[in-house]
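> forwarded from #structure-qc
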């Protein structure tokens, strides 16, 4: 959604969508070819040949919001294009990207981890986001970004895999951004994007030194359309359909949540999710007395008003 909204700015150029193959057509950058073990790339991977091939690959496919190819414009009129790029695997590639695009600026988009984990879980279940069909240390198909040491997750649950991906992605981003000047990156919360799109996008355009033009402003003032990758209608409590799974892994992510809150404090007024909020949420869930449970139908709506059937909510906990 963020990429698709920013791509409406007149001065941004994109390749039209995600750029997986622009990177992974280079065999040594693709785990599918067995020449690298994960999506983690650093400056050591950006030799002169790789830098030249990736720059040319992007330049050859750039287009503006009207789908006009950059290479069809007269060079004096075109000037230097500002590339807008978004691919989830880039969370593990910041030092690599920095070597190829040394003037790049970075937008760190963060989200309530419960919502984020639920989306990852649903994505794995859907099989719509398979990135690797065959890996040397994995028995089946892999979805989403591939962190280092993914093989150690072979005997774990789906929620543990989701938590592993979430942890590695966020920690890697924050550690890498922490190595560069603060004015080269900013942060934005998903909640701000969906509830306060206009001011949020205007701030990001200012950060990127891009004009917040009238067409983009009009686009943001209307209800933002769903992303092309949206699986189901947005809902702040949608994650509760996977609440029991998420509850098992969130406590182990508290250190990363605190790291996010600390890192983004100077960039945005919205905190990702303070660990105290997790405890408060748990405390607000009513305690079920055994005699009450016995009176409830397993298929009835749970008394706590979570929106789930009793058997999938407090009945499952019991």
């Amino acid at each position: 959604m963020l990429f698709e909204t920013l791509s409406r700015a007149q001065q941004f150029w994109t390749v039209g969508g995600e750029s997986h193959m622009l990177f992974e057509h280079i065999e040594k950058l693709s785990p599918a070819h067995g020449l690298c073990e994960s999506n983690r790339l650093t400056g050591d991977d950006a030799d002169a040949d790789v830098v030249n091939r990736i720059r040319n690959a992007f330049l050859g496919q750039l287009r503006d919001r009207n789908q006009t190819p950059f290479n069809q414009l007269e060079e004096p009129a075109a000037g230097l294009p500002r590339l807008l790029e978004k691919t989830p695997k880039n969370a593990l590639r910041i030092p690599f990207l920095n070597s190829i695009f040394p003037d790049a600026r970075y937008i760190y988009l963060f989200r309530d981890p419960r919502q984020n984990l639920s989306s990852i879980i649903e994505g794995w279940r859907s099989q719509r986001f398979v990135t690797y069909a065959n890996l040397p240390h994995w028995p089946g198909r892999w979805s989403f970004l591939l962190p280092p040491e993914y093989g150690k997750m072979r005997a774990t649950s789906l929620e543990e895999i989701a938590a592993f991906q979430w942890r590695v992605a966020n920690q890697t981003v924050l550690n890498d951004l922490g190595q560069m000047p603060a004015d080269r990156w900013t942060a934005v919360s998903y909640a701000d994007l969906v509830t306060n799109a206009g001011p949020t996008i205007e701030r990001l355009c200012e950060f990127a030194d891009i004009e917040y033009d009238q067409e983009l402003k009009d686009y943001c003032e209307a209800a933002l359309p769903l992303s092309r990758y949206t699986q189901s209608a947005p809902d702040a409590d949608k994650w509760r359909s996977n609440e029991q799974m998420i509850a098992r892994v969130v406590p182990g992510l508290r250190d990363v949540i605190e790291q996010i809150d600390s890192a983004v404090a100077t960039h945005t007024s919205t905190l990702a999710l303070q660990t105290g909020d997790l405890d408060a949420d748990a405390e607000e869930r009513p305690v079920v007395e055994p005699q009450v449970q016995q009176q409830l139908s397993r298929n009835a709506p749970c008394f706590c008003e979570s929106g789930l059937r009793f058997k999938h909510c407090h009945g499952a906990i019991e």
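QC bot note: The chain has a mean pLDDT of 86. Residues 54 and 107 are 21 Å apart (CA to CA).
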